[in-house]
Amino acid sequence: MSTKLVNLEGKEVGSGDIKNLLIDKVHKQCMFEQVIAEDAGKRQGTVSTLTRGEVRGGGKKPRPQKHTGRAQMGSTRASNLVGGGCSFGPKPNRNYKLYLNDKQSHLALKSAFTLKDKNNSIYVLEDTKISKPETKKITNLFKTLKINAEKRILVIADDNNNLISSARNINRTEAKNWNQVSTKDVLNASYILIEASAIAKIGKVVNE
Question: Which of 15, 58, 112, 200 sits at 20 to 30 Å (Cα–Cα) from 37?
Fold first, then answer.
């Protein structure tokens, strides 16, 4: 499958081959599980609740042990009382990571690219070495390609820091190197602008 190959001025200079990023059938379940795993991996696991032994106060016995007709109670910081500690609450250093094997992860990423290709949302940018960051060039490129700036845009670069710096200042635009792109990034984007050389590198990884 090929799509338009454009230069920084937005002119079509050929066709970009993206077939090594695509598959015949979109696997929704793989994409779902991959996005869940990506979100879980971002959780810090630093939340901490106080047990009854850590809550301030409760040193005095609230009522006599016997002869009241009520249950024995040694502290006002029991978990069943207001202001008491938390039973079985979360503690720090929990690992929330979920693990998918490489085959599933690669299938999810290719499914996401296939989904965007079916919507004609992928544009291939010819390899360009920008001498310095120029946000205006990328803004004008979006206008020439008639990319709606109100939508989410993902720019995928081939280790091109000047391209990333040029694009990331634009509102609702995310710019990443080819090896940092996740399935969620692709799914969240309404438009994808990817450097031609980045396609080969991503394709090599996902087709291993």
Answer: 200
